[in-house]
Amino acid sequence: MSRQPESWLESGVNLLYKLRWGLLVVFLILTGFAYFPASKLDFEQSIESLYAKDDQHLLDYLESKRLFGGDEFVFVAYTVPGLLGEEGSRETDELKEVRKFSQELSQVPGVNTDVTQNLANALSPPKLNFLLRVLIRQKRDELIELSRGVLIGDDNETTAIVLRLLPEDQSPVPRAETFKQIRELAHAHEPRAYVVGEPVQVYDMFRYVEEDGDVLFKVSLSLLAVVLLLLFRRLRWVALPLLVVICSIWWTEATLVIGNLQLSMVSSMLNSLVTIIGIATVAHVAVHFQALQRENVPRPDAIRRTMVELLPAIFWTCATTAAGFLSLLTSEIAPVRSFGIMMALGTLMVLIASTVLLPGGMSLGYLRQPSKQSDDKGLARKLKQVAQMNERYPKRILWGSLIFVIFAAAGFSRLTIETDFSKNFRDSSEIVKALDFVETRLGGASTWEVNFPAPSQLNKEYLDRVRALAEDLQQVNPPDKTQLTKVISITDTLDFVPSKPFASDPIQSKLDQIEDLQADFESSLYNPEQGRMRIVLRALERQSAEEKLSLIHKVDALAKKHFPGSETKESDQDSKSVHDEPGKAAGIFILLAYLIDSLLRDQLYSFLLAATSIWLIMSLAFRSLKLGLISMVPNLFPIVVVIGVMGWTGLTLNIGTAMIASVSMGLTTDSSIHFISSFLRARSRGASTDEALRSTQHSVGRAIIYATSALVAGFSVLTLSHFIPLIYFGALVSVAMVGGVFGDLVLMPILLRLTYPDKAESAA
What we know:
The protein has helices spanning 3-18, 20-38, 56-68, 93-106, 119-123, 130-138, 140-147, 175-188, 198-232, 236-258, 270-294, 299-326, 334-363, 377-392, 394-409, 430-441, 460-474, 490-496, 506-517, 521-525, 545-562, 588-593, 595-600, 603-622, 625-649, 660-667, 669-684, 689-715, 724-755; strands at residues 73-79, 158-164, 194-196, 446-453, 484-488, 526-527, 532-539, 566-569, 577-580, 584-586. It is an alpha+beta fold. It folds into three domains: 27-44 and 234-366 and 377-414 and 593-755, Multidrug efflux transporter AcrB transmembrane domain (Multidrug efflux transporter AcrB transmembrane fold, Up-down Bundle); 71-202, no CATH class; 446-564 and 580-585, no CATH class. It is elongated. It starts with a helix and ends in a 9-residue tail after the last helix. Belongs to the resistance-nodulation-cell division (RND) (TC 2.A.6) family. MmpL subfamily. It comes from Gimesia chilikensis. It is found in: Cell membrane. Residues 152-365 form the Membrane transport protein MMPL domain.
């Protein structure tokens, strides 16, 4: 490196050192003030936010909500022996209890009280005229069959109470409170009731991410403190990394609140990733500072020299990390873009916190001179053995690594996407137990639909088409396999209700009678003003990705077959072509099925952009395109291996692993920059390539091992999460970091030796 940048850098570091006490105090005070806005950071709990605004699945779902009021249903299911009583008997005590429990659930704030469904009311509606009461009594068995799979199971003992939620903007309490009260009533009921429904599943997903993220972050910080103490054996090197991490996180969160941004499912990993960057940064500073002290460099000089030699590397590591995350701005999904902004901001905060806090932190109090001999002789010996192995067998190592990468990359073709939403939770969780109960005893727990064009007034010919579609949908299941468990069409109830004698409009007469049976039945299936009708479907949630997507495609194809859409001419003089949109499948069931696909859709482009940006920044940092390219090898190696091994081992892509490539790309560059920077410094002082690599392996290698050990220990806490994607994320990031160690300490030295053979005069 030339003297001019060093002189400028030295003057800047000297100024930082002179102002270290004031800067330390001011930033600690600012951190205290940052806590208050940081604590108000909200968590966006909307499944819609995980889709691009123009995504067709999302548009179809939002259109359905607008047309039919949405399908935010909650099912409370339980078993009641003797539910129906003897054949032909009147309402049993058990059915009366069902009605009473239904009334209790209907009073929960946030529930639409007027449209709660239960078997007792279905078999004996409380407000009916005499003729309908007689009809229902005569057709009781037929009515039970209409209710089967929704209000009663095949065993005639399992029943469900169906609650329809008020829209969130109309609810008097937050959804969390509504679900809490429903579950309290269900758990207190005898026999115990189970609560399911897509709104509950989505709520539990976000709740686990938010609660586990907070708890696990605190536990992992505590574990990190213990590991750092064992590695460095100095309280100072426990306190300083944690201080940098906490300050960076609070400053980041406070800035997000001021900027009116929210955490989402995607950005729930913010704290964990900032921790990685902060711990890794301070670990390199600690190792470098202690090495200077072992050389009897006075503390003030050791502090200044450490900052002069490491600040450029710290700056470039933060720049490449930020560039990796900013590549996510190309995503069409708002939370993914905001995650990129958040992580770039968090990385900037780590840079500021490290620059401002470390000079004062290293100067505080008494600091015992480290022993001449390193406390980790075993680690030094292992690093020396690795260096010797690199020198003796470079070709074998490179060829072996290349073959392994090719083998791992072949696993890409075996990757699968997890669409069984229940697989996001542990088998012991409340939501999985409830899904098992409902789907084995009552039918599918997922509600969705097909909707299609409808006339402003129903007629026999149109209803025959609807009936034909419903019949085809009932036959859609493959042999010996149940996927679609219930088809609910307006024709089912119209066929059940008799026409009034001499009615001028028999169909409307039936609809009026249905209104007395169930107030929202017609409006939930038919919107004459907008010219749209739907058939509501129930499907198993716990089925594989292939089965679920195949079912969606079959149902959508049937809807388009029966209602392909058409073009008509308006009758006025300004006639124009009007297109009737064809039938289509829609619903939150489909959103959940395509959720990971939505997150993955633009990740390849983001990853390529991140890789290119990082290569250019590293080339600029080292003033060499060749070095920039070499530095990418150890960073791409663990990503290819991790994703490939996922394919070979059958690990599915889920919410936690959907962006593992882009995230890993932004995290594995730090050690590479420190390694190359140390190597170039040694070369500029006249060391040979072998000497420079050995000294770098000993110094930077120790920092890499220390940082990785601490972070892997911290991320192991994620395996305690209730949310399976968080477990995957913690495990895979740990594997990626270990792979990065291999890349930096094995592949990097070999590549540098090939680039800078000892016969070369200088590497400046």
